[in-house]
Amino acid sequence: MRRGLDGGGRTVQHRRAALGAALVAGRSLAAFQASIAGGIAIGSWGWGHLTDLAGVETALLVSAAMMFVSPLLGLWLRMPPVGARNEDAEVLADPKYGCR
Q1: Does 49 fall in a domain?
Q2: Alpha carbon of 35 to those of 8, 67, 79, 100: distances in Å?
Q3: Is pLDDT larger for residue 96 or for residue 54?
Q4: Which of 13, 48, 50, 69 has CA 20 to 30 A from 81's CA?
Q5: Distance CA 94, CA 100 (A)
Q6: Structural domain boundaries enclosing 47
Q7: How many domains does the chain fold into?
Q8: What is the pLDDT of residues 51-93, one digit of tens each?
Q9: Which pLDDT belongs to residue 30?
Q10: Taking the CB of residue 28, how many other CB atoms lie within 10 A of it?
Q11: What distance lies between CA 96 and its chain's CA centroid?
């Protein structure tokens, strides 16, 4: 076995880079899931607070009105257009790893 290669034929730097990418992806997914859970918690608190103040019937009517308005709001606030599907992808340079 040559120096700098592991049993799979990849250099140690490649293994470290792959591990680093996996850790970044894992942390990104954890942050995404935490933000979703936080949004659900804040929304639940808000709807519960509205129900305590105005009653169940009013909270359901407000929810129904918001569900009706949401798609209409989507027609007014459109997503920006995306380029054609057949355009070439941008080629990125190889990343430089600081591993030794």
Answers
A1: yes
A2: 38, 22, 22, 36
A3: 54
A4: 69
A5: 17
A6: 13-76
A7: 1
A8: 999 999 999 999 999 999 999 999 999 887 776 566 666 776 7
A9: 92
A10: 10
A11: 25
